[in-house]
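User: What would this chain look like folded?
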Amino acid sequence: MRKTTATPADLARQAGRIPARPGPREVSSDMETQTSGVIAGAGPVTRPGERPTVRLREGDGDGDGTVQEPPRYAPEWLRLREPADAAARAADLLDPLRIRLADPPGRPGGLVVHDLGCGTGSMGRWLAPRLDGPQHWILHDRDPYLLHFAAVGSPRAAADGSRVTVETRRGDVARLTPDALVGASLVTASALLDVLTREEIDTLAAACAGAGCPALLTLSVAGRVELTAPDPMDEEIAAAFNDHQRRGGLLGPDAVTAACEAFADHGATVKVHPSAWRLGPDEAALTAQWLRGWVGAAVEERPDLAARAETYLAARLAACAAGELHVTVHHSDLLALARPTGGR
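Assistant: Here's the prediction, encoded as structure tokens.
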């Protein structure tokens, strides 16, 4: 799977990932000072031709026999966005998930959770302490640097004090078949769906259906952004950004609809709930980084916006620094309850 860079993943996935221009670069730790010019400012830090953290296709290369090094997602960005992600995730989906996970067939030793494209492990830190019972998390990512952060920072106890253990698996999720998920109680991911193609989402849905396990897929961009006070360029930037997200056949803001269809076609019951980032003065650093990536991707998609976008970005960053900017970046969380296997 190719990955184009996208918003609110992670600096990487949308409210998720923020789009970054290809090419080697460092992500600045000073998120307040760069106000001149349109910059991507956020991450994945990629080199030309690099692959994404998660792929759902066979093979490690580009189809020409080459093997790509894993991309590096900036831990600084992932750390910066984690509180906003935690506040945004749809807690309303947890009760139906808990009901489904109660006494799972064939898994008497506790829950086995596969976290796809785990990054630094923020999903596990959010979800594990909200579920009862012993849990074993299998963290998947291509970047060993991020896997180290995820393992070290993983929670050690469930909601009821039961033990939580983790293991890491480096590499592409390239063989995401029912066999790969044998014994899985749950599949999770954050900001993943919008960087997949329709074919890849169907592969994911088929794998979960074959394993009979639910999937909790959070923080997929919805394609809508609200900023105060409104500016005439808001909609123009948003439309260009959404088009950027759809490059190369990726679904971007259309992903949740496609995922609902795919999981339903495989017999799952699907629930969707909004999970917006709501950013104010207390999240100024995150807002500034998100703005740079959002505007940068829009200009990459529509270079004719560059001159006006530079003025727009400078004004928005100034308002952000002054504590006057509020931003709502809309996302959706999806819970797919596949039909159980194992005789129930």
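Residues 284-301 form the longest helix (18 residues). If you want, I can go into more detail on any region.
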